[in-house]
Design brief:
- The chain has helices at 3-6, 22-29, 32-35, 46-55, 60-63, 109-124, 139-147; strands spanning 12-16, 66-72, 78-88, 93-100, 129-135, 151-162, 165-175.
- It is globular.
- The protein is 31% helix and 34% strand.
- The chain has a single domain, classed as Aminopeptidase.
- The chain has a 7-stranded mixed β-sheet with strand order 1-2-3-4-5-7-6.
- A hairpin with a 5-residue loop joins strand 2 and strand 3 (78-88).
- By secondary structure, it is an alpha+beta fold.
Length: 179
């Protein structure tokens, strides 16, 4: 299977970010509603995002992370992002994050994208495992990861502060049984 086949789905496909994606990424990164799912809690400037787009090699081996834009297959319109972060070549693992903008939620895009990321990570990158951190009260995300074969492997008590209160984070992982 070639690289492009791993990243093309029926309703969405994943592609490298382009300089033209700056406005979309700026909108996503600066939406406080998304900050709950990350360790980041302040806005990014256009300048910083432009620098990121110019400096990234879109190569997980060089950058130790990979950001992919999720676009509708028919329209080519960006609807979300998929990230592989904390890549460890020594241990054959990475963390995965999936985000779909609110207007496109509920259409199965996140599941399709997560399935593609898993196929790509296991089939092309030959990773041994993927991990994910999900806020414990984010039921839609927990269902998504479980539906794609991720299992709970632990809970970090009061790990993230969200809106002034500490929340538990569920640690999940999916192990590549084909290695």
């Amino acid at each position: 299977m070639d690289t492009a086949s791993y990243l093309k789905g029926k309703h969405v496909c994943l592609r490298a970010v382009e300089p033209e994606d700056l406005d979309f990424i700026y909108e996503v990164e600066n939406d406080p509603a998304h900050w709950e799912a990350t360790d980041f809690s302040v806005p990014y400037s256009r300048y910083m995002l432009r620098q990121y787009l110019q400096s990234t090699q879109c190569d997980i081996y060089a950058d130790r992370q990979l950001r992919l834009l999720m676009v509708e297959t028919d329209s080519g319109k960006p609807v979300g992002m998929a990230d592989l972060t904390d890549y460890s070549p020594l241990h054959g693992r990475a963390e995965v994050g999936i985000l779909v903008q609110k207007p496109w939620q509920g259409r199965g895009y996140a599941r399709e994208a997560l399935e593609m990321v898993c196929r790509y990570a296991f089939g092309f990158l030959h990773l041994h495992q993927l991990g994910a951190k999900v806020v414990a009260d984010n039921e839609p995300s927990l269902r998504l990861f479980r539906a794609c074969g991720f299992q709970t492997c632990g809970v970090l008590k009061e790990w993230w502060r969200v809106d002034g209160q500490f929340k538990d984070v569920v640690m999940m992982q999916k192990i590549n049984c084909n290695i």
